[in-house]
């Protein structure tokens, strides 16, 4: 029987200034802005989607930028670090590049056999770049970052929790994840154990709860093939006592949400239909796209959004 969940679909964070957000993820990191829309639950706020050429599941980092938002704090009950996958010989390039733009970077670290570096964006969002020689995804570049060093997509995510047992049961019994290994207080899980499906739990029993605001993750979404498999996941979760939402239509995928026992908001999102349903692939992210129900209010919505532009020329 095929697994219902096959890895990470997307990760969504809260951000501050919208223009700085676009500049960092497209200019500094070189991700493609594949969709510029609104937060469907708060239509006066942008929702940006950054990813590979088409915004394929497993590559998409999304943000809700709130102008003037105070910075949050990392802590337990949160996804504290989002890890992206890069080529096995790319960390020296990225270390030099990040430092060129004044971004402090950690020394080279090693974890479960992979080398990595750690840093934060302008809001304090925790990011890791993990060198992987086995990730054959092509990545994306606007041309200002060499293709061989481009980000391929997610490597994985780190959840910081006060205890792991109930979350581990959720992952391994109901979400098609398996335990991979342990290094100190870090426990690793995966569907296949490859880039794009890794979830690490770091146990911090005495840790303080994180405060969610700019620079923190709002939720992590796991991928499932279609609406049929999503309903099967929903049924399994509900039968096992999890409080799961109804299916929500996010235009580019369908979603269900629930909170895992450690406090992190989980989503299960469909791979279908993708981001090319309302824009040509060559022009993804160029216009503000709205769901049908918001179109009658377009003029008012756009008037309330801070104008932004995409320009990576300062980040060569």
TrEMBL record:
* Residues of the VOC domain: 7-132, 153-271
Look up keyword Transferase and say if it applies. no
In Pfam terms, one family for this protein is: Glyoxalase
GO MF term (any one): dioxygenase activity
Q: Which key words tag this protein in UniProt? A: Dioxygenase, Oxidoreductase
> Does the keyword field hold Oxidoreductase?
yes
- What is the protein name stated in its UniProt record? Ring-cleaving dioxygenase
